[in-house]
Design brief:
Blueprint: E1 14-19, H1 22-25, H2 29-39, E2 44-45, H3 47-50, H4 57-66, E3 68-75, H5 83-95, E4 98-104, H6 108-112, H7 116-129, H8 134-147, E5 152-154, H9 162-177, H10 191-202, E6 211-216, H11 223-234, E7 240-244, H12 247-254, H13 256-268, H14 278-289, E8 294-298, H15 304-311, E9 322-327, H16 330-335, E10 340-343, H17 349-361, H18 371-380, H19 385-395, H20 400-411, H21 419-427, H22 431-444, H23 449-458, H24 463-472, E11 477-479, E12 484-486, H25 489-501, H26 516-525
Parallel strand pairs: 1-2, 1-3, 3-4, 4-5, 6-9, 6-10, 7-8, 8-9
Antiparallel strand pairs: 11-12
Length: about 525
Amino acid sequence: MENHGALSETKYSYDVFLSFRGKDTRHTFTCHLYDALCRKGIITFMDDVELKIGDQLAPVLLKAIEESRISIVVFSENYAASSWCLDELVCIKSKCEHVWPIFYKVDPSYVRYQKGSYGEAMTKHESRFGKDCDKVHKWRSALTDIANLKGEHLQSEQGKDESKFIDDLVDKIFIKVSPKDLSSNEHIVGRKYRVEELKSLLDLESRNVTCLLGIHGVGGIGKTTLAKALYDSIYKHFESSSFLSNVRETSKQKGFKHMQERLLSEILEVKKIKLKSIEEGTRAIKIRLGLKRVLIVLDDVDNVEQLKKLAKERDWFGIGSRIVITTRDKHLLDFGGVEKRYEVKVLNEQESLELICQIAFKKSYPESNYEDLSYRAMRCCKGLPLALKVLGSHMIGKDLGGWKDALDRYEKNPHEDVQKVLRISYDSLPFNEKNIFLDIACFFKGKRLEYVKEVLDACDFCSGDGITTLVNKSLLTIDYQCQCLEMHDLLQDMGREIVREEAWNEVGERSRLWHHEDVLQVLADNN
């Protein structure tokens, strides 16, 4: 159940609030469900566990409902007989964004239309309070509305294993409440006003339109970082959300079908979806997501086919959805019919200085005696966030002499390309880390971490320490969601250029070959 009020941030104290009739299920189903939720690390409010002597019941429960991500309502046979349960249900309907009904050995239609034991209970309430009582009307409305939501049904006559039902339910809830924040631990200079500009373009208060927004700019400018910050600030206000990172690279390596499966899995909040074909995926997106108000971010799109397979038309998604696309190619947005645009600009001098200091000194301003050197380093990067991060990482822990040597060396060759900035960090690496970096740049970008470590270790490289060093130097990142190694395109280009420099005219003399035409040429020359 969505709260359609104004957008606001909510601080959650609990993942789940359990509403149930104690006499029916406290020591059976609900108790087992509570234990299973807690074992999974899901913070759950259950009144007999959380309430302390002296607490006033109503304020404590109301506060717990307001501060819970999800309310699970266990509709048992005699739930409606309790006026307290019904009051609680009315509060849940008005205060909780997401409600998950569980029909425990009761027909959902009995709850929805107040028949059977629910009809008998409501008749008794009407006799007690009066048929036209506003309280009773609110109870009936809450029962109907919440019973109409998608939920789970455990039927005793089916003989379904109750423990299996609970395990499956807990898995679904875990996916629902798991935090999706992508940039909470990342310092983003100028994040607040840039995110506000993006939110203004998205017009989030207009819930009767579906909006597409394109975020474009050169490589390394911070499009993905900004998109993550935007996603973090608004995803909780949508029915479901998905951030598809590295669309360009992933679609090339794993195909469009994999991307469609990932999109459907994240939006529908199920562990795994298998599609037979891309065409089936397109139909599934239109059918399964057409009524959902969703937030989708397609990160690093470079081909219109990627848009066609994942988000071709606005009506593929429910009214009020927002689709955000990041790309280096603003012309691609024309083909995709993306009318709203946001070009990410380089950082100004103050922002650049703050960012490089955050990386090098862990604070927003230079250390004493490092002011001039910090300004020099900042000017070298020309406002490009990636270069500022990499150069700042290279300077961590260096004394004044180290800073001067690195900057003097760089400034002898005024840059026309940010790769010269990136090269400084590579040149400072030990032999082992240099080889790991080049191998990843040439062969292993986007590959699973476990697989890469296995191959590198077989070549007598200390992969664990080496990869950690590269991550710390901002030369490599790990996508913990899919356990894959990622590297910015500019860094990959630099690594491959280093290998080419080993022998410009003799391909066979190079240490690494990654292009099939080069491999064929070498094989032909050796025959």
